Write a sequence for this structure.
């Protein structure tokens, strides 16, 4: 396995992509105990991973879309 394909490099690439999508610096995710928005995001991601079935994940997405619609944000996918 080359360095470019190593698990470490794949994780770093994923982290960079996530930071880019969220318009946050990568460093925001590297604090010992992130607070505020980043801490909430990491909590949501941990909870997402803990949901093992597709119907449960679809319910979470449905609730998130409803919240976006309630707040009037038209940028939801």
């Amino acid at each position: 396995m080359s360095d470019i394909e190593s698990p470490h490099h794949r994780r770093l690439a994923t982290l960079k992509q996530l930071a880019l999508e969220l318009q946050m610096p990568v460093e925001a995710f590297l604090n010992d105990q992130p607070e505020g928005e980043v801490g909430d995001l990491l909590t949501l991601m941990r909870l997402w991973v803990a949901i093992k079935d597709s119907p449960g994940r679809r319910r979470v997405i449905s609730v998130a879309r409803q919240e976006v619609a309630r707040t009037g944000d038209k940028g939801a996918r």
About this structure: The radius of gyration is 15 Å. The chain has two domains: 1-30, 32-77. The chain has a mean pLDDT of 84. The CA atoms of residues 29 and 42 lie 8 Å apart.
